[in-house]
Amino acid sequence: MDRAAFACSTAFFHDYSSASHVAVSLPQGHVDYIEKVESFSYSDFFRDYLIPNHPCVFSAKFTEGWGSRRNWVTQDGKPNFDYLLQHFGKAVVPVANCDVKEYNSNPKEQIPLKEYISYWKEYIKKNYQSPRGCLYLKDWHLCRAFPAEDVYTTPIYFTSDWLNEYWDARGVDDYRFVYMGPKGSWTPFHADVFRSYSWSANICGKKKWLLFPPRQEENLRDRHGHLPFDITTPALQDSRVYPRSAQSCPPIEIIQEAGEIVFIPSGWHHQVYNLEDTISINHNWVNGCNVAIMWSFLQDELAAVQREISEWRDTMEDWHLQCQVIMKSCTGIDYKEFYNFLKVIAENRISVLHHVLDEEASAKNTHRAAASALGMLHAVFDLKRAVQVLTSLNANEDFKKLNPKSLSPPPEALLHRLKAAIDTALL
């Protein structure tokens, strides 16, 4: 991060009220196309897309060196089934049925990749029809299962990735996925986990994205407050079911070609179609620019749980704890883990500022090395954002009921340490 980008971040995030920013409307739905690698810096991306929360598309030049683009694709641009079978055929993968709606999503099953590719070949041969429906391989943690494979290198623009930094430190999960699906496979209308950013790179094939900026989705709710499963459904025109749909702006449309990367900002709802047989690599990620949006999302989720079980509030002794349990089962995180999430990131940034990252440590901790590569000013920015969100968390009444003084270290002590680190770095 250069000084100009740091000054821009300081001006924008001058207080917590800027935390849950809403993207400024894009002129006539325009989405910028980033053509050249050599003329587009990390600071450019940070200033022009992360802070204003705007989408953009990176050209195929940004993925030219990836192993997956060399090996997973045939000369005519189709999925290289032979290579995939040879290297990953025995893997068990999650597959969704795009033709079935189950609890506002597509039901999934786990099957061997070799079985899925056999289905896919037959599906193509029969003109994209099958009694099994349209099956879509989604959310496969391929790189976690095959770490030695030469698949891709995360572009520098997406390396300030607190979400995967934290879950890698825990060693239990990550938010890096491979998607593979035939022409016609699709993902229903949604916003990403924790209201995270996402980036999606097409290894081969073509996608169509339909995007709505934050809060535009509110006009698409039905009379019960539910969002549509499919925003192309004719039912949206029925004002008796969707009373505000006429007020909705049309979606921003992106056609993503092979090799290109789409950046989806925080809190943007979207629906995605594979227009051809397509393979993509996808990350969800959070950083200092949108961590407060994640915190606001968690507060909304807890409030929704509290409303759902409010009738037991006075009769259940540990009601507030049960609310946290239910929220974690629905979202994957509760308030105590969110505190630990902030703590891990903050401690890593303090290490960067103390210049303790030698070559051996760099080899063992790629996230800390990436944070170091982004520079001291970025580490200070991350710490300042962690302090702002941690201060809000510490003042939260629901968090206070969880006995935060029992945490290690207690929030007040951690805040004092972070502020001291920032002051020392800025001397």
TrEMBL record:
SUPFAM superfamilies: Clavaminate synthase-like
Family: Belongs to the JMJD6 family.
Taxon lineage: Eukaryota, Metazoa, Chordata, Craniata, Vertebrata
Name of the featured protein: 2-oxoglutarate and iron-dependent oxygenase JMJD4
Claim: Oxidoreductase is one of the keywords in the record: yes
Keywords: Iron, Metal-binding, Oxidoreductase
Cofactor(s) it depends on: Fe(2+)
Organism: Pelodiscus sinensis
Catalytic activity: L-lysyl-[protein] + 2-oxoglutarate + O2 = 4-hydroxy-L-lysyl-[protein] + succinate + CO2
Pfam family, any one: Cupin_8
JmjC domain segment(s): 143-302
Gene (UniProt): JMJD4
Single annotated GO MF: catalytic activity, acting on a protein
A single BP term in Gene Ontology: positive regulation of translational termination
A cellular component term, taken from the record's GO annotations: cytoplasm
